[in-house]
């Protein structure tokens, strides 16, 4: 027997519920990671990362079926997808997060999709370009290949101001002044304040 139409949630109700759950999961993972000194903490959240992807996909489909994305002054789906792309170490889930980011609204609040994508793709290349000692990329990515503590600043190179991305890689203490790596990147500087 088919349920009456009134029993099925309308798209705005589905979107609101999915959005609230998405934000709850994002905040939960983010707050757990604030004081953690090891990137392996995020390995315990694979199921939550999968849930973020499912909810974001649902919200994207609802937005596309409505023919538009509404103006969002909060983080919407971009920031939770960015978290998955930056912190999840399952290669397949990271790839899905990148794909969903490409279909996300152009901007949500201060978050520009293309800037977030550029940072996420940089990290993906930096970590997944690393190979284990056997020459095979593993999922999850070994802690020794993980990039963390990313910061952007400006530098002058050959008389031109550029964005310099500083980061640590591998088994370094997240809270000390261990060795920093640096790369000149074509990213907007303001992203450095949000990494």
TrEMBL record:
Top-level division of the source organism's lineage: Eukaryota
Keyword Nucleus appears in the UniProt entry: yes
GO molecular function: DNA binding; metal ion binding
Protein name, as recorded: Uncharacterized protein
InterPro entries: Transcr_Regulatory_Proteins
Organism expressing this protein natively: Oleoguttula mirabilis
UniProtKB keywords: DNA-binding, Metal-binding, Nucleus, Transcription, Transcription regulation, Zinc
């Amino acid at each position: 027997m088919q349920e009456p139409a009134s029993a099925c949630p309308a798209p705005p109700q589905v979107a609101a519920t999915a959005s609230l759950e998405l934000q709850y999961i994002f905040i939960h993972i983010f707050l757990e990671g604030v004081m953690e000194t090891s990137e392996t903490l995020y390995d315990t959240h694979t199921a939550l990362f999968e849930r973020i992807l499912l909810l974001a996909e649902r919200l994207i489909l609802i937005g596309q079926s409505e023919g538009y994305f509404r103006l969002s002054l909060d983080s919407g789906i971009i920031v939770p997808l960015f978290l998955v792309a930056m912190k999840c170490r399952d290669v397949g889930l990271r790839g899905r997060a990148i794909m969903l980011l490409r279909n996300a609204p152009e901007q949500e609040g201060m978050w520009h999709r293309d800037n977030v994508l550029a940072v996420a793709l940089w990290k993906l290349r930096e970590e997944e370009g690393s190979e284990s000692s056997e020459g095979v990329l593993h999922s999850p990515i070994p802690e020794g290949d993980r990039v963390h503590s990313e910061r952007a600043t400006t530098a002058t190179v050959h008389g031109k101001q550029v964005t310099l991305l500083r980061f640590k890689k591998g088994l370094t203490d997240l809270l000390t002044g261990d060795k920093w790596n640096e790369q000149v990147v074509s990213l907007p500087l303001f992203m450095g304040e949000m990494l």
